[in-house]
């Protein structure tokens, strides 16, 4: 646990009692604060009975609160702020989050005791941030560098262990977390990409970009790593260069301009510095990193690890031993010559499109709770699809958009997997890349992916499973 200090003897509101909320309450209590907790869900309140529970949606109890720490899933602005947030505004109480408290902990005296101060790497982007974070963590672990990973992925920021000398903490940060954090102080900030997502929470694409941009604009990182494959990254890189922030440009497809850059071309990762190539890695025979989107992830991980002082050969070895991340272009099994891929994390059209580009002869399982825009932007990739198997609320609308591509409305994932198994021939890829949220039929993309895996492996003669 990262102990939160600076609130000794003070009452601090905690809104939302999921993973991050409970960790926040415990960290505040350990530092001598009195957490005052609320969740609209009674079951969540019952699970938090070790703390004071007060209904923060009412006006009572606000007189002596000094801050309100809000969990990332709770709206604080759009589409409408939670009533407790509005109460905090009325009473002049600071609204903040657990990521901010994590960085505030760095101001404590014990940080002066390190021989080599720990480093914090923060990563954001619409797609690929979990894989990039996991890659960096794996490479550092393989190189015997102390490291922890958390934030939006895995362990909550305040649930991490106390930091040790020369350790690297990798935080995957969502737009929700970045937008609200009053304090951000990463040593290395990484921006991968941007595609329309969560627009209701940010009042449109401009608000979404502004939230993501705070990984640079709300702090002064020692090094910025920026994906240059989209105009948003080019815009951010230009601003950073003008402010004098050292930048490493990354790209999944091109070399552009001068300066330090890491890019992928024809399956090779190349590092260029001062106008010449200084390192190269062959990515073509790394099955855990399929597709151009994973080449961008590999470039980002390489750039971070080089910034931390690792040699190219060490990074190469780490990339080769990386086993992949569950629910993200994960090879589940090969059965009778048919390969099954779980990309349940492809919850938007951009992520699904990258997954489609990574394979051919695809039997595509897609659908769920649709996001704005549908799948029309994927039309240029439909030729890669042998047949689509459509599920969930979006099934009919997806069917209407597929044109001449063969499809079958299956409604449920169970029926879709059965139909794909029935139709598949040797050499086919059965790909779960839904391009949708999971909440119409599942509680999370993880549950959807786990269900897919169990259905694939049921009564199967599996010759590959990792």
**How many separate domains make up the residues?**
3
**DSSP helical segment count:** 15
Distance between the termini: 31 Å
The portion of residues assigned to helices is 25-40%
Structural class by helix and strand composition: alpha/beta
Low-confidence stretches: none
Outline: globular
Strand content: 15-25%
Going by CATH, the architecture of the largest domain would be 3-Layer(aba) Sandwich
Strand order of the largest sheet: 7-8-6-9-10-11-12-13-14
The quaternary organization reads as: single chain
CATH class of the largest domain: Alpha Beta
CATH T-level topology of the largest domain: UDP-N-acetylmuramoyl-L-alanine:D-glutamate ligase
Number of beta strands: 20
Describe this structure in words.
By secondary structure, this protein is α/β, with parallel strands linked by helices. A 9-stranded mixed β-sheet has the order 7-8-6-9-10-11-12-13-14, sandwiched between helices. Strand 18, helix 13 and strand 19 form a beta-alpha-beta unit.
Descriptors for this entry?
32% helix, six-stranded mixed sheet, UDP-N-acetylmuramoyl-L-alanine:D-glutamate ligase, 15 helices, 466 residues, single chain, Protein-Tyrosine Phosphatase, Chain A, nine-stranded mixed sheet, Rossmann fold, alpha/beta, 20 strands
Concise structural overview:
This protein has 466 residues and is α/β, with parallel strands linked by helices.
Task: Describe the SSE topology.
Layout: E1 11-15, H1 19-30, E2 34-38, H2 42-47, E3 52-53, E4 65-70, H3 83-90, E5 94-96, H4 98-104, E6 119-124, H5 129-142, E7 147-151, E8 168-172, H6 175-180, E9 188-191, H7 199-202, H8 205-217, E10 223-227, H9 231-243, E11 247-251, E12 261-265, E13 268-273, E14 276-282, H10 291-307, H11 312-320, E15 330-335, E16 338-342, H12 349-357, E17 362-367, E18 385-391, H13 395-401, E19 407-411, H14 413-423, E20 429-432, H15 445-457
Parallel strand pairs: 1-2, 1-4, 2-3, 4-5, 6-8, 6-9, 7-8, 9-10, 10-11, 11-12, 16-20, 17-18, 17-20, 18-19
Antiparallel strand pairs: 12-13, 13-14, 15-16
Helix pairs in contact: 5-10, 5-11, 14-15
